[in-house]
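Lab notes, practical 5.
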Amino acid sequence: MDHTAAERSKYQKIWTVDGYRVRSPGLRHLPGALEWMQPEAGASITDWGSGSGQASDAMHKLGFDVRMVDIAANAYRGDLKVIEACLWELPEDMPATDYGFCADVMEHLPPEKVEAVLQQIAARTRKKCYFQIALFRDHTFTEAGPLHLSVFPPEWWEQKVLASFKTAEFKLIGRKHLLAVATP
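Output from the prediction step:
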């Protein structure tokens, strides 16, 4: 099965739904992520799975050098440049940034691609990467197919993150979200 084509098509369709684009878990989690990572002024940050770009735009306004990467370029309607790339098939020559921000993305991946994505992100992060991972099935916006494909307990995610990053700190929000700051 060609996961890349199927996932790109699904997200190109879902990003045409206005109700989907107004929700931004990344923007909601951004203040806590920045407080936890403590990036220095002007640091470079990749928004992995940048989606509508609300978090990217906010980071850019705060003075960070933001790189956006998403599987579906039509997700973003702003002025920053989006690199359209699948997170498990990143360009070999894509350089690292100081920090990474990956909110509401990991649970959307096909389970067999999770390790590859974490390895790709770790290889392109110099200092720290923030992850916000939903631990529940999402039954909304399924017109193009289910969105949360990798729904696993927090312990599973912790093991996967630590297999690709040297260290990580974790916070569990109820049993709904796992937050992590990982260091390569």
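Observations recorded by the TA: The first helix runs from residue 3 to 14. The chain has one domain: 3-183.
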